[in-house]
């Protein structure tokens, strides 16, 4: 049988298909709204091209997903297993389903992403109850956990089965290795498992200057949502099972939750490119450094208050509302708490010193108007 010939848009064989695709945005526009606004790192795009061409088995039975397992184990130990998924909310929902029963509940901070920013997906899609506790800085403590860690035998109450925390937190703050170990020990002593939302796990490891294993499997975390999109990937995250004794039916849960990619090689090869060398660390160190540069400049500007310790790649600040609105017309960023004038500025792997210095100059100009 002869090889099939390409069709053009009118359906005639023998000609390469045309395209009307063209750049629809101005690449010179920069901002501090989210590390999701950044594009993909060139090394990630090169990896995607490498995985393209030819045929590979679907649904994770491909060479790239198989090799990814050894890469992940080099970071998280020999018992770790990675399950690539499409996005962070999917990773969190699948991971939490894997460690809860239908009557189970998850203890988390009231600022947690799973509570505030996932449209109720853990509860509506995952079918579990979130038990939230207030914090000063986004960080849980054993004492805060105990506010909701009770009533296991009470059939009228959702059963606390999991403690979930983010590293780094939604407020940009970091847990030390010792703090995470204390959380894990406390949860395990009470018969609960531990989930870590690692959407920005690389930034945390870079800031603490420790391997990711130091505050995950080595500290007692049972299951991890590993984030790549915010650190240079085009799309995709992974659920990493650290304690296989505590997790059941991950393959089925991933499919049931609509997170099973048919062409999984294109997620897996990105994770491999990020983790097999030091790209994950280079990107995170850079975005952290840009946040420190931004924070240092902001501290010299009268009329702006930095709200939380700048420990990763986020700067939270309070300034006059009208100044923020004018500044948003020049640089994109979000209000965090509009009622009190609090904003969030995020730095990315591709944020430059010129971006930061230009933003600081614009901030001074708008404050002076």
Description:
There is one protein chain. Helix 2 runs parallel beside helix 10. The model is unreliable at 1-15 (pLDDT under 50). The protein has 369 residues and is of the alpha/beta class. The protein has helices spanning 42-51, 63-76, 88-98, 113-116, 121-124, 142-145, 177-189, 201-208, 250-256, 265-275, 279-298, 321-328, 353-368; strands at 81-85, 104-109, 129-133, 159-166, 193-198, 223-227, 237-241, 305-306, 314-318, 334-337, 342-346. The chain has 13 helices and 11 strands. The strands form 2 sheets. Strands 1-7-6-5-4-2-3 form a 7-stranded mixed β-sheet, with helices on both faces.
Give a short overview.
With 369 residues, this protein is of the alpha/beta class. The protein has helices at 42-51, 63-76, 88-98, 113-116, 121-124, 142-145, 177-189, 201-208, 250-256, 265-275, 279-298, 321-328, 353-368; strands at residues 81-85, 104-109, 129-133, 159-166, 193-198, 223-227, 237-241, 305-306, 314-318, 334-337, 342-346.
